[in-house]
Design a protein that fits this description.
Keywords: DNA-binding, Repressor, Transcription, Transcription regulation. The protein is of the alpha/beta class and 252 residues long. It has 9 helices and 12 strands. The strands form 3 sheets. A 6-stranded parallel β-sheet has the order 6-5-4-7-10-12, sandwiched between helices.
């Protein structure tokens, strides 16, 4: 970072705060031309500290997620707005599955006024918040809490979720990728594409799939940067969710 100009350091600060910035956004922010921004981005990418994505720049691809504390402050306002919209849609008196992630933890904070909820979650931060609400019954699996994620994703969690039947299962994801479409009756097609929710690790994806398999309704929460982030493990196609909560999605 010492070799970067002041503007380039400020660009990196924005990238870490938002996870993704468009070229147009950065040009307006610094009141310079898109061409100048592109030169800055090229230098950042050459140093391996940034990566170009769909008309902008984001964090480099990694095999694992960033720390929970780092993710908690990224796009915080947007995550809280999504969480408020989700909470409004959750009826009283239902059984709810909550998966991993910081947006899910924000949803837990918004449930303070709900009544007669049973919540099953492997998200320790969400469980800690919900444990303060006397009107909510909270269940968590046993296992090791990951320091990087604030959650439990051991194999025992798969069986734990299968013991319940949820009215609504809500998960987040590490990224959303456009992949070739396939169904059990067809082969992969290079021409037909679909958006797929992805996770960094297989065990994370398997836990999310267990939540979906044991829920009557399945909801996905994903802030706009998920469409610019890469992850390697498939969870489910977006068309399989009854609802997708995001400012980047035009569906229900």
């Amino acid at each position: 970072m010492d070799d970067l100009s002041t503007r380039q350091q400020q660009i990196m600060t924005l990238i870490h705060k938002q996870e993704y910035c468009s070229i147009e956004e950065l040009a307006q922010q610094f009141e310079i031309t898109p061409q100048t921004i592109r030169r800055d981005i090229n230098l950042l990418c050459q140093q391996g500290i940034a990566m170009r994505h769909h008309g902008g720049v984001g964090l480099p691809v990694t095999l694992s997620n960033r720390s929970y504390d780092a993710r908690q402050i990224t796009n915080k306002d947007e995550k809280q707005e999504i969480a408020k919209n989700v909470a409004k849609a959750i009826p009283n008196g239902c059984t709810l599955f909550l998966g991993i992630g910081t947006t899910i933890a924000c949803i837990a904070e918004q449930l303070v006024n709900h009544r007669e909820l049973r919540v099953v979650t492997n998200n320790f931060q969400a469980a800690h918040t919900l444990s303060k609400f006397e009107n909510i019954e909270t269940w968590i699996p046993s296992g090791r809490i990951r320091a990087n994620g604030g959650d439990i994703v051991d194999d025992t969690v798969l069986n734990y979720f299968s013991q319940f039947a949820a009215d609504i299962g809500i998960i987040g994801c590490a990224g959303i990728s456009e992949l070739p479409y396939a169904s059990p009756q067809t082969t992969y097609s290079a021409e037909k594409k679909q958006d797929v929710a992805m996770e960094h690790e297989l065990r994370e994806a398997r836990v999310s799939q267990a939540i979906l398999e044991n829920s009557q309704q399945t909801w996905l929460v994903a802030n706009h940067t998920k469409w610019q982030r890469k992850a390697s493990t498939k969870v489910a196609a977006l068309c399989q969710f009854e609802r997708v909560f995001s400012n980047n999605f035009k569906g229900n």
